[in-house]
Amino acid sequence: MLVLRPLLSALLICLMPTGAWASAVAEDGCVSPTGMDLVGHPAGWLCLLIFFASYAAVFAEEYTHMKKSKPVMLGASLIWVVVAFVAPAHGVGHESLRSAVLHGLEEYASLLLFLLSAMTYIAALLNRGVFDVLKDRLIRAGLGYRGLFWATGVLAFFLSPIADNLTTALVLGAVVVVAGVASPHFVAIACVNVVNAANAGGAFSPFGDITTLMVWQAGRVDFLEFFVLFFPSLACFLVPATIMQFWVPRGRPDVPSMPAQMRRGARAIIVLGLLTISMAVGFEQALGLPPFVGMMAGLSLLMIATYIITHGDGRPLGDRRRGGMFDVFDLVAESEWDTLFFFFGVIFSVGGLAYIGYLEVASEAIYGTLGFSWGNIVLGLVSAAVDNIPVMFAVLSMNPPLDHFQWLLITLATGVGGSLVSIGSAAGVALMGVARGRYGFMTHLRWTPVLLLGYAAAMTTHFLVNGP
């Protein structure tokens, strides 16, 4: 499966119609979408080969242990270098080419700054022990295995819209592993539930998943409009969980727990985090500013807060260190830079292939043949094998004439489609590392038919509740 994913990803890119990347270039007075038709040109084939090779290296990470950002960043750069070499022969000057590249940089920079701020806040909450307290209270609650199954699932569903699905899966996956130390079967089935719940919860919030964030920042769906996906997302979580609960082992875990406490400044950082989210939304809704402006303003408040927490109590430096001295720049350094640079590679690789015509090779194959509704549903299923980030960016790049209902549908489909297999979402990949030996690809695959029922329930509920 790991070998097939890069092939499927590249195939998807080839089958998608042209989009906003090329269109935006045309609007800026640069080359039109047809001005750089390299689909049958040796340079175009070379770019496609580079894309195949870079993605193959990404999904060989399990064996090579080389971080996924490295080959994709190199591949993106090489694709644009090849394009630049052949551009003069197609009447494309340096200014036009530069405008196309800078269009991609605008997309990436706004995403980078937003995520950098969000990740720093999550790192600060981890540093202050907020999530440790959550784990401790769950473990000490005295719940049986079935109670923990539901508690971790419900918390994953409602926490991921705020903390994102990856962080949520890591925190609650740790609870599952500790509580299920004597029951590997419980760990396996509870991890499947946590992954599905985290992805479902993340689908109805711009902060819950990278794909929803991309759709929001692209202006396809307003912030409050995402919440109409609550009931479809809830159906996606409840249907599989209701079925799986009958296979949860009986009994009660007997796990000693070390009481955890939040460290100094934790509550202030929680308040600042909520204020930052409010600023990102408020600046965008009321002032028309990109969401990352509010997030960066919030990051500056976090920087000031960490200074006050560390230096404002009047104690000697040594005592402050024992009390939990920390610096926001250390938190920034701990951000998931591999993921952030991986996004760079995805955005510029897909953008390069779009610029030379590969996103219009078979435009009728998806939306032209299947129609918008079935096309979006199928793309959601494809995202389980390919990863939802390149799928969503490809859809945004081709900019099909989707109405509001259809943009919500593709957002929902790619958001929850990754739950069908463990490697289909960041949450599943993360939990395979946390619960190594007890939760893995084949373990998750056993429940794919049940998860498919949840996916179908989500799509059906969306049509019933939000349909035109």
Can you describe this structure?
- With 468 residues, this protein is mostly helical.
- It has a domain of 223 residues.
- Helices cover 71% and strands 0% of the residues.
- Helix 1 runs antiparallel to helix 3.
- The radius of gyration is 23 Å and the shape is globular.
- The N terminus is likely disordered.
What are the key terms here?
single chain, 468 residues, mainly alpha, 23 helices, 71% helix, globular, disordered N terminus
Give me the secondary-structure topology:
Blueprint: H1 4-15, H2 20-27, H3 42-58, H4 61-64, H5 69-86, H6 94-127, H7 130-139, H8 145-163, H9 165-179, H10 184-202, H11 210-217, H12 230-244, H13 266-287, H14 291-311, H15 317-322, H16 328-333, H17 337-355, H18 367-386, H19 388-398, H20 404-417, H21 426-434, H22 441-445, H23 448-466
Helix pairs in contact: 1-3, 2-6, 3-5, 5-17, 6-14, 6-17, 7-9, 8-9, 8-10, 9-10, 9-21, 10-12, 11-19, 12-23, 13-14, 17-19, 18-19, 18-20, 19-20, 20-23
How would you sum up this structure in a few lines?
By secondary structure, the protein is mostly helical. Helix content is 71%, strand content 0%.
Q: What percentage of the residues does DSSP assign to strands (E)?
A: under 5%
User: What is the N-to-C order of secondary-structure elements (H for helix, E for strand)?
Assistant: HHHHHHHHHHHHHHHHHHHHHHH
Uncertain spans, ≥5 residues at pLDDT below 50?
1-35, 316-323
Distinct helical segment count: 23
- Overall strand count: 0
Radius of gyration: 23 Å
Q: Helix fraction?
A: over 70%
Q: By helix and strand content, what is the structural category? A: mainly alpha
Mean pLDDT across every amino acid position? 80
Shape: globular
Query: Biggest sheet, in brief?
Result: none
Distance N terminus to C terminus? 38 Å
